[in-house]
Structure formats: structure tokens, C-alpha cells
Design goal:
By secondary structure, this protein is an alpha+beta fold. It is built from 8 helices and 9 strands. Helices cover about 55% and strands about 20% of the residues. The strands form 3 sheets. The protein has a 4-stranded antiparallel β-sheet. A 3-stranded antiparallel β-sheet has the order 5-6-9, covered by helices on one side.
Length: about 325
């Protein structure tokens, strides 16, 4: 019996090792970079776990709303309503919807993305559909908080997968930026095409040493725009109740560095070291060909001198 158990354990270990090795090969194939001639990778980076905190907060807010609903429903505030019926069901659904609307509108205004509101609304409608299809209104005070918390946990998991899909390569010849879950996107940028570099660090970035780096090309790729618009209107009505409405306005647009997370080095860590490395690569790429040859020659001479000094020290030690 012991021999059988040992044989089974050995077989499982061998299978696990084989699966882990295949998984590692698959991961390497998915993330490997095809290098050019005489090219080498200086750094391979991914966004810091806290760099997507603005997206995490969307689901943390939903998680807190689910916890609040669980406490509210269990506190007896709705005990005066009938156990079943349209009045209680409507009250519960309206209260549930109120949190989605408040979180969705505030998040959409702050992030200037109304798709967030529609995502919240879709989650609410899906929950209503599940409760209605399962005829679970009598258990809605339990189902709704559990569903809300579960949806927030799934959302946090998706955001983490999205973060892990980003990968940035800093090579001796170019920047390669990759990202995306369903549709993979890649941006390749040679150093001699970079006209400007924008750096930014928030409070969390300064604490945990990560930040954003946006390379701007000569064609303007990497630039977005902030637009402000002001308008005013007036209505004039005559005694015979005929009138007209006038509207006048003006706008101002400012170009500012802005890019998607897979078109910039988003949340890279350690920020200062990566910043210095990119500045060094850009500076070297702007050298004239003969200057570049001189720099390479000097590097070779330094390496030879270091090797010679090391050999002399080894001989002296012997």
C-alpha cells in the first residue's frame, strides 16, 4: 500500500511539474519580445499594483454599498412594510438603484467617462433580471447585498487581470508598450522619434515610488486635449407672446500629454531609475553617428581596462 501511494505521489508530482513547465513556456511565448539585430532588453516592467487604484475604487465603492445594504436590511428599518408585495419590492429596488446612480454619476463626472455609469446600470439591471427570473423577491434583502458584494469582487479581479496584461520593454533601440485583455495593443517607439517626455507622480506614487511616463512623438502622438466651454442664453418675449431664444458661447482647448495605459509607461516602478534609463537612451539616440561610434569605442576600452585590472589582481592574489 505504501509503495502504491509513493508511486501515485510521484506520478502527480511529475504531472504537476510538466503542467507547470508547459504553462511557463506558454507564458514566455505570450510575453516574449522579438528583438532586432544587436538589440537587448534593458528593463521589463509592469504597472505597480496601486497604479490602477482609481479603477479599484469603482468596485470598492460598490463593495461598501453592498455591505451597507446588508446592514440596513438587517436593521429592521423596513419591518413596517408588508413582507411581500409591490410596495416593499419597489422600495428595496429603488434603494438599491439609488446607490448605483450616486456612485455611477460621481465616478463618471470625476473620470469624465460616462461608460462607468452605464456599467453600474447594467449590473443593476442584471441583478433585477436574476431576481425576477428566479422569483426570489422574498429573499431580496439577502440576495441584493450578496449580489452587490459578489459583483464588486469580480470587478476587482478583472481590474487585476487588466493590470497584469500590461507589459513594457525598454531595449537599447526602442520602447515597446503592450496591453489589453480581449484586444491586445502594442506601441513601438524608437528613441530618435521621441520629441518630449512627460512625467507625473501622484501622492500614492511618491509614497510607493511609481509614476507615469508618456513619450510624445514629433507627430504629436501621446497628446490629448482639455477643453473648457462656457455658454449663456437669453429669451426675449414680446407682449404678443412671440419670442426667441439666443445662445452664445466660447471654448478653449489646451494640448496636454495624455495616453491610454497601454500607450504609456503607466505606474512603472521604481520610477526614478526608469526615468533616468529612458532619458539616457533618448540622449544617446540623439548623438551623431560618429559620436555614437566614439562612445561605443570608449565603452569597449573601459571594459578592456577593467578586465585587465581584474586579471592583474587575480595574478597578484595567487
Amino acid at each position: 500500500m505504501a509503495a502504491l501511494c509513493d508511486s501515485f505521489t510521484g506520478t502527480m508530482k511529475s504531472q504537476f511539474s510538466r503542467n507547470y513547465k508547459n504553462r511557463g513556456i506558454l507564458l514566455y511565448i505570450m510575453t516574449a519580445l522579438h528583438l532586432l539585430e544587436n538589440e537587448r532588453i534593458e528593463r521589463e516592467l509592469q504597472p505597480h499594483p496601486f497604479s490602477f487604484m482609481h479603477l479599484h475604487l469603482l468596485w470598492i465603492c460598490l463593495f461598501c454599498w453592498g455591505i451597507f445594504l446588508g446592514w440596513f436590511f438587517s436593521s429592521g428599518y423596513l419591518d413596517d412594510l408588508p413582507e411581500t408585495g409591490a410596495l416593499k419590492n419597489g422600495t428595496v429596488a429603488a434603494l438599491w438603484l439609488l446607490g448605483f446612480i450616486a456612485c455611477g454619476v460621481i465616478a463618471s463626472l470625476l473620470m469624465i467617462r460616462w461608460r462607468i455609469f452605464f456599467v453600474y446600470l447594467a449590473i443593476f439591471l442584471l441583478g433585477i433580471g436574476i431576481i425576477w427570473a428566479a422569483d426570489a423577491w422574498r429573499y431580496s434583502e439577502t440576495v441584493i447585498p450578496v449580489y452587490t458584494v459578489g459583483a464588486s469582487v469580480i470587478g476587482l479581479f478583472i481590474i487585476e487581470l487588466y493590470r497584469r496584461s500590461h507589459r513594457y520593454f525598454i531595449t537599447t533601440m526602442r520602447l515597446v508598450l503592450r496591453g489589453g485583455m480581449i484586444m491586445k495593443r502594442e506601441r513601438t517607439l524608437r528613441y530618435d522619434k521621441i520629441a518630449d517626455i512627460d512625467y507625473s507622480q501622484g501622492i500614492g506614487g511618491r509614497i510607493f515610488r511609481y509614476g507615469n511616463i508618456i513619450p510624445v512623438t514629433q507627430s504629436g502622438f501621446g497628446l490629448g486635449s482639455d477643453t473648457a466651454f462656457a455658454a449663456g442664453g437669453a429669451e426675449v418675449t414680446t407682449k404678443k407672446r412671440f419670442g426667441f431664444f439666443g445662445l452664445a458661447g466660447g471654448g478653449k482647448e489646451v494640448q496636454t500629454p495624455r495616453a491610454r495605459t497601454y500607450y504609456e509607461l503607466h505606474g512603472v516602478h521604481p520610477f526614478k531609475e526608469v526615468k533616468a534609463l529612458i532619458e539616457k537612451m533618448v540622449q544617446e539616440s540623439t548623438l551623431a553617428p560618429y559620436q555614437r561610434e566614439q562612445v561605443e569605442l570608449q565603452r569597449e576600452m573601459v571594459d578592456l581596462l577593467r578586465g585587465k585590472m581584474k586579471d592583474e589582481n587575480d595574478d597578484a592574489g595567487e
